[in-house]
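ugh finaly. both done.
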Amino acid sequence: MKLSKRITTLTEDESGGWALYFKARALVEAGESVTELTIGEHDVGTDAAILDEMHRAAKAGHTGYAAIPGIPALRDEVAARVAATTGVPTTGDNVVITAGGQAALFAAHMAACDPGDRALFIDPYYATYPGTLRGAGAVPVAVPARAENAFQPDPKDIAAAAPGAASLLINTPNNPTGVVYSRATLEGVAEAAQTHDFWVISDEVYDTQIWEGEHLSMRALPGMADRTLVVGSMSKSHAMTGSRIGWIIGPDEAVRHLINLSTHTTYGVAGYIQKAALFALRRGIDFETGIAEPFRRRREIALKILEGQNVVRAVPPQGAMYLMLDIRTTGLSGTAFAEKLLDQRRIAVMPGESFGRAAAGHVRVATTIADDAFAAALEELVQFAAAQI
């Protein structure tokens, strides 16, 4: 039987940029010892108190169909958190709970784009972005952020690509680069959005992981609250990656239609998961800071290891749980470097090319293993790079 073009053309190849990761996982499953620095998975699991609340809620009977928009208390709590951190008035009516940030990205593009619409996104990008846009029926259009500008997008490039676009997807703090977009960058995005009348879909799942500068939500800029859909998630801020719970913040009308979309797709998120998320959010900012602290610490470890040599250069890591490393001095592509590193040293990192053309000649390193093991792996990566010259 013939499969739809929609599903067979989601990605340019079957791996969707994940080939190195799949190879590393296969080695591990075969019994090999591999140091995995590939994906953004915390090295400590979800806090026991959150799991206890999840168990209590399930035992209390919250295992049936839950409110499809999200339980009212959770929507209100998310709204209060967003209002407090961004300064933008927000109510539960501006919130729809989703099955994680990835589902939120898909739903947001379903809301913003008709089939065949041009949907802009910044390159380098999180590996699922182009497939998400194609899945929503849009035509993905990459806008490059250049290595020579430390991967800070140039508003002029956005404006040049903007005519006729229905949406622009941005991500700050950024995965894969660790860059925090500046106020000037975001003001340029806002100007283009208002001039050319497109939606901005702002992926802000790393908003608790800021090492330099400040996080400015796109929705907080003048004139942008009514044309911005913000994607948030419990995955990174609360180490709840497997719980699959996130949200979209947007104008009331957009949220009403997104709720209708949820009715026809996920049919909501399990009630006991929502109860656990509510409990987790109520633990406050200190808890979120504690979840982020290991990544702040490993950033400092990395910068000390990388200083005093010029073979491997770090893109300034301002946020998120990654390092984007420039290895172009080796003469290897990011893909070739990562393949050799895995084959010869059993260290797995993601090729920059997995995240777009603009990141060619780079590799992304996740700071997601214990400090000592992380330091040892990064030191070995630097030695390996030097040996390639």
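ok and the 2nd:
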Amino acid sequence: MLKKISVQQLTVGMHLKEFCGSWMDHPFWRSGFVITDPKDLATILASSIREVWIDTDKGLDLAKDQVAVSEAESAEQAEAELNKADQEIRSIDPVSTAQELRQAAKIFQHSREAVLSMFEEARMGKAVDTGHAKALVEEISDSVSRNPGALISLARLKNADDYTYMHSVAVCAMMVALARQLKLDEEQVRLAGVAGLMHDLGKAAMPMEVLNKPGKLTDAEFAVIRTHPERGHKMLQTDPSVDPLVLDVCLHHHEKMDGSGYPKGLQGHEISQFAKMGAVCDVYDAITSNRPYKSGWDPAESLRKMAEWTGHFDPKVFQAFVKSLGIYPIGSLVRLSSGRLGVVVDQTGKSLTTPVVRVFFSTKANMRILPELVDLSKSQGSEKIAAREDPAKWNFPDLSELLLAPVAATTGGST
């Protein structure tokens, strides 16, 4: 039987079925385990979680003199109550990038811990349970609903050492944004997010010295890396509840439209829409992220280069991807018609060519200027983007800080 109890009633030997409350407040990324370590009890008590569900059929029950908060005869009944409570605390009202960044940072950190744990368990040969990824995907999805750019731009700034794990989080967020751009239903959006989170699970089976090599791979090492889609597919099949869509993206996210991809060399219509989505999201995050052996490319320049790779991506999926990010994605370095340089910090929703830019450098005076936010959708033509700029050419050391730092004023004109 399932019982909702106070965390003060928890004891070693109880089977923790679910936490009550926001997933962001959970002390562990997953539930569904018997508490065996007193340290885990201390961790739960130190969190903001006040109530949990236990399964008395799989672990200890309450003492005879203790009373549960409530009881449920089935897992479905308990899940319905959890989902109802979750809906009451979730917020998906649109906000600015600056507003969402704080929450996105919390999701980013929690996601890192969850994905790291998931990869380590897979590496040890433990069965993969995709069901535990649902809450993580929902938090990421909610963040994307509030502001599509915040979490994606934050994930792009990940440490090179965290690439393997945070790449999965970034692809999850982009898959959610892309699925919504393609007008897919919410169940497909959720599955797209799970597929993005799980698409590289096979890298857990790769030799660490190859996976983290700080230089170019040899042909033999690349041949090993190319096995990760099939290895991941096999790992996911250990979970009987995994959706075929998730399996498909895991296996085929490196296929290309012209048939030159791997592992099956599929082409065109042989590749599912979701695998095509996975291919775009996977490549974009890979080329824009800092890696042990190279610095990430500028977001806008990355989209330009991807558009030139004939035969690689499905054109309709790629166009939708560009619309989901903007022609000048958050983090892009641009030069305005006034000669000022700035970094794109938000999209306005009015036009793909009129984002919000934080200007900070004058090319005319060749000097730094006081940072200022310029909303190009309000400039009425007096100010517009003249060109993309290569960050490597200018070598500004604080682009990340400029992207994330708050600035009080927003203008629509030039100086």
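summary for the 2nd one i guess: The chain has three domains: 2-89, 97-325, 333-411.
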